[in-house]
Amino acid sequence: MNKGTVIYIGGFQLPDKNAAAHRVLNNGLVLKEIGYKMVYIGVSKIKDNNDLYPYDVKHGFTAWDRSYPSGILSWLKYLINIDYYVNIIEKYSNIKYIICYNFPSLALSKIIRYCKKRNISVVSDITEWYGAQGENMVTKIIKGVDSFYRMRILNKKVNHLIVISEFLEKYYSKQSVIKIPPLVSQYNNCNKSKPLKYPIKLLYFGNPGLKKDRLDIIIDDFYRSGIDEKQVALNILGLDKKVFLEKNSSFKHILQVLSNVHFLGKVEHSKVAEILEENDYSIIVRKNNIVNNAGFPTKFVESVSNCTPVITTDVGEVKSYVERYNCGLIIEENIKKTLKNVSKIDKIDAFDSSIFYYKKYIHIFELIFR
User: Fold this and answer.
1) Inter-residue contact 296 to 182 (CB < 8 Å)
2) How many domains does the chain have?
3) Are 117 and 210 contained in the same domain?
4) What average pLDDT score do residues 303-322 get?
5) pLDDT higher than threshold 80 for residue 360
6) How far is CA 236 from CA 208, 270, 327, 334, in A?
């Protein structure tokens, strides 16, 4: 039964170019199960002047792409103007919800007004609490004002909220809100304990350029831990050594000394699961701040869903998952001590890898999408 159309809009790059794309598609799978038709309006860095044509994305969803903004005027239009979205929205009938993924504040305010006149419910999907970061003071001010207006004012005016973390759920506790971590459409069964062979393989994967992950701390503590290379090895997926050293030139000597640190470069996302399974643990190190506490690491979800436990700092609510499902280790004091403890383990116990499977969240979505 078709309950109507849900249109998802935001800065995601379909089908799998960023973490946002995986989130919105897997959320869409839940809504499809409930009975809604899904339409997406994202962005593309490879399409140019091809904004007027829809295409089919996986799971039978329809998607539209607007060209990724470049230049000041293009960015201003992206942050303020909603004409592109309205033109597409009006091609569809029986629209019940418009979900705005981490949407720019001025554009979001216009979407709220537009939908109120047409009796369409607006849902904010919030996965971040952006800080006032930027290369210069003007950028910092713009991002700071945008974040304040969206997070503290506009998100309290929408009909419903989907939030990624307990931190955000508590902050918006007076609103109509559901907490949905990053979801997956499939997972590998971890029904057997995994014996460990030396060297124990740790995998960092992702993009430290986003300033969330502290790969520099991982490598530095790996160097200072004094662990024999025959005991533990660190594999780094997502960038090569040259790129890392361009931003961390002081590590040149350390990487010359460490023969058990291996840069694997970038690979297609479809190969990440296979590489995860080849490693014993993944590792996440993040600072304890509002940006990281408000989010939830997608790589934690990917790792657990592919039967690879996670060594992680106690940021946000990952500790509750680790303790409840026995799917990793928390870095209580420092990485050095944790690495030494890891080197003494002889096997990894089986754990529930279906924690984030999308079908387990249907009943939660139904609280909003009735």
Assistant:
1) yes
2) 2
3) no
4) 95
5) yes
6) 11, 17, 21, 20
